[in-house]
Amino acid sequence: MKFSKQLQEKITELKALEEKAASSSEKIRGHNAKVADELTEAETELKAAIAELADNPSDANRTKEREARRRVAELQLELNGAKERENVVFGLNSGKTSSLKLEILEMARDEIRANRDANEEKVLKRIAKAKQEYLEAAKSYYDLLITDGQKKYYDLVQEIDVPDHIAQQNEPGLSVHHPIYTYRDNGPNKYGIFEDEVKRAWERGRIE
Question: Which ranges of the sequence are coiled-coil (predicted)?
């Protein structure tokens, strides 16, 4: 079966939303990384400003050190919010995608059940027909070899009154031998139907 156009459109919408979410998360991680780099640079500049102030405690160096310290404090505050920013962005996107995924699953469930209801009886009838056909075909093989073979021969033996030893010397020698419908040592048997084969088809959807 194929899912409906409406469901396919929902899947397309979900993928677009996930791509947008991934892009947003990547951008916010990039922003956080940039802030971290700026903080490292600002801390280096603060150390240099402190060293200059120590060498020359002028008003200009005091101002420079104060501004460098303010810059570090601002960046530290901004970086402290990095994880929160990532969580907020993830939460916003996750809520939308989770809701849409649930909607898709509910639509898929309903369409699959509808497809089952529309086709189950037809498939079961096919199974029943195939089973009957197989049994009738197996019986026809028996009829070919036994009913119209060995049995017919010995019916004739009785009819014309032939001694047993003479009849046995000339019999067709036909029989439905086990290997034709049971397991063979040299590989699969294409004529028999076995429990594990039936189980695989019914429960796993596999034919080997």
Answer: 7-122
Q: Give the tens place of pLDDT for each residue, 192-203.
A: 888 888 898 989
Q: List pLDDT tens digits, range 84-124.
A: 777 777 777 778 888 999 999 999 999 999 999 999 999 99
Which residues 6+ apart lie within 8 Å of 206 measured at CB? 200
C-alpha 23, offset from chain centre: 26
CA angle (128, 116, 99) in 5-degree steps: 160
Q: How many CB atoms lie within 10 A of CB 99?
A: 10
Instruction: Give the H or E element holding residue 41.
Output: helix 5-55
Neighbouring CB atoms inside 10 A of 22's CB total: 11
Pseudo-torsion of CA 38, 60, 55, 66, nearest 10°? -40
Contacts of 193 (CB under 8 A, 6+ apart): 134
Q: SS3 letters for 118-141?
A: HHHHHHHHHHHHHHHHHHHHHHHH
Helix ranges (H only) for 56-150 are 59-80, 82-142
Whether pTM > 0.70 for this model: the answer is no
Closest CA to 15 of 77, 104, 143: 104
